[in-house]
Design a protein that fits this description.
The chain has helices spanning 2-43, 47-54, 71-103, 221-237, 391-413, 472-476; strands spanning 108-117, 124-131, 137-147, 151-158, 162-182, 189-196, 203-210, 243-246, 261-271, 284-289, 295-297, 308-317, 324-331, 338-346, 356-361, 379-388, 430-431, 440-441, 499-501. It is α+β, with helices and mostly antiparallel strands.
């Protein structure tokens, strides 16, 4: 009897345990599903939504990634790379070689590709951020990284030697901004704007190796190539400069980067410059530019470390929010002039039609990470005034910029100047064209004393006629050579160079 009762009680107890276990598992499953739904909904919230819900108790450890990962896109890019590499090689060779010729330094007589292969390693896209910064446009920022194995050999020719130079261990880290201009016709995109964001600053690292020779065969060759690469990137691709690629036949004037204003610089004097001479004192002069192709210089003051110039220079401003003026004090010497100091002046804080006195602290370099001697190089005193263009002044300035670039190319072809990046010396006042105080270059004296007198040649050559060609000529077949740009907001340039109002 006891055995039977025990069996029955055990059976009832076992069934009760199984029923309870099943009920508990069903309850936990329902809770997990409910939590998953809540988590999915929370995943759709942004930082502001969570702050409204949590109030002051919002946990700071919660982070929102700025860029979305696109692993699938990297897989596709890896498969497509052999075909992309072949097409990109042709585009780069056709488009970059003319730029190398335009931007080559004076000490080099020829700079072109001898061999060009982008290798077998595809670039990697770390993430993509999509924004709507302006109505009718979609802005996409691409975190682009490439540590490839290209075979790039430059044929460098100078007066003293001819030498093949190989670029090895190439690494590129940058953020590419792509702007899609929307329309109502298929494929719903009328044009694409491409640029490199200035913040974070594009980083291009490589190692130079001489093929069958030594880099010392051409003095200063490594620095000249580095400067040329940086100048092309900053002057052609880095915001506000960009490339416009038309997709449909349409007016892209709204995307074009036009002159927005004129900066009048009065270079007053310098104090306590560093002496670079073994005998006597330095012979300083100042070059000023916003774009390297648009460069003016003052007269030379001989044997003086506290020179006074009172020289007026006028420069074209294309994007006041992001651009800055660079002022470099040089010592005139036989061969290559030596840098005494350099500074940059952000334009974002300048108010139209208000003149300011500014003292700039001169530095050995704008990139102080590579400089061991970080001591100041003295000060440069200037006066600045910004004038905002009207529509008529803007159109006139654009035409004048094209003329001055053509004139500089003609002088270069005739051997009167060594490079289109040579600074224009002499009287750099801009007069007589109705742009602010005018845009005619009078008595400027280019290179070896060649005067551009009364030609109304504008502030300086823009060089943006090559911008569209970098991509537009090969892709569209139309040779897009327009200056391009839109007023899409971007991060401001960090202030450095030591500008301080007095």
């Amino acid at each position: 009897m006891g055995l039977i009762i025990g069996i029955m009680m055990g059976t009832v107890f076992g069934v009760a345990i199984m029923a309870g276990w099943r009920q508990m598992m069903t309850y936990r499953s329902a809770k997990r599903i409910a939590k998953a739904v809540v988590i999915k909904q929370l995943g759709c919230l942004n930082r502001d939504d969570l702050r409204k819900i949590c109030g002051d108790t919002f946990p700071e450890w919660i982070s929102f990634p700025v860029y979305e990962q696109v692993k699938w896109l990297n897989k596709i890019l890896g498969k497509l790379w052999p075909y992309v590499e072949e097409a990109a090689r042709i585009i780069i060779k056709e488009s970059v070689e003319p730029l190398l010729e335009d931007y080559r330094p004076t000490g080099i007589t020829s700079l072109k590709f001898d061999k060009l292969s982008l290798g077998t390693v595809a670039p990697k896209i770390e993430g993509i951020r999509v924004q709507s910064l302006k109505k009718g446009q979609i802005t996409m920022d691409i975190d682009f990284r490439w540590g490839g194995d290209p075979n790039i050999v430059l044929e460098v020719e100078a007066v003293v030697a001819k030498l093949p130079i190989q670029l090895k261990d190439l690494q590129v880290f940058t953020v590419i901004r792509v702007i899609f201009q929307l329309c109502e016709e298929i494929p719903c995109i009328s044009a694409v704007v491409v640029a490199l964001l200035s913040e974070p600053e594009p980083k291009i690292d490589y190692t130079l190796k001489a093929v069958g020779g030594s880099l010392t065969a051409i003095p200063g060759l490594s620095d000249m190539i580095d400067d040329t690469v940086k100048t092309i990137v900053k002057d052609m691709l880095e915001w506000p400069h960009r490339m416009v690629v038309p997709i449909l036949p349409t007016d892209t004037s709204d995307l074009e980067l036009k002159p927005h204003g004129q900066l009048t610089l009065t270079i007053v004097k310098a104090n306590n410059l560093k002496n670079m001479e073994m005998i006597g004192q330095s012979d300083p002069y100042v070059t000023a530019y916003i774009r390297p192709l648009e460069k003016f210089k003052t007269k030379v003051v001989n044997n003086n470390l506290n020179p006074v110039w009172n020289h007026v220079i006028q420069l074209i401003v294309e994007d006041k929010e992001t651009q800055f003026a660079v002022l470099e004090v040089l010592d005139q010497d036989f061969g290559q002039d030596k840098r005494l100091g350099i500074a940059k002046l952000p334009l974002i804080d300048l108010e139209p039609e208000i003149e300011k006195d500014i003292e700039l602290r001169l530095l050995p370099s704008l990139d102080m990470l590579k400089i061991k001697d970080k001591r100041d190089r003295g000060t440069l005193t200037i006066k600045v005034k910004y004038h905002h263009f009207t529509k008529e002044e803007q159109d006139a300035a654009l035409e004048q910029e094209k003329k001055i670039l053509e004139e500089k190319k003609r002088l270069k072809a005739e051997g009167l100047i060594g490079s289109t990046m040579d600074a224009i010396d002499g009287a750099a006042g801009l007069v007589g064209s109705g742009i602010g105080t005018g845009v005619g270059l009078v008595g400027s004296g280019v290179g070896a004393g060649v005067g551009l007198v009364g030609n109304g040649l504008g502030a300086v050559g823009s060089g943006l006629s090559k911008a569209g060609k970098f991509m537009g000529r090969t892709i569209t077949g139309a040779g897009v050579s327009k200056r391009s740009g839109a007023s899409t907001p971007v991060n401001s340039v960090d202030e450095s160079g030591g500008a301080k109002p007095r």
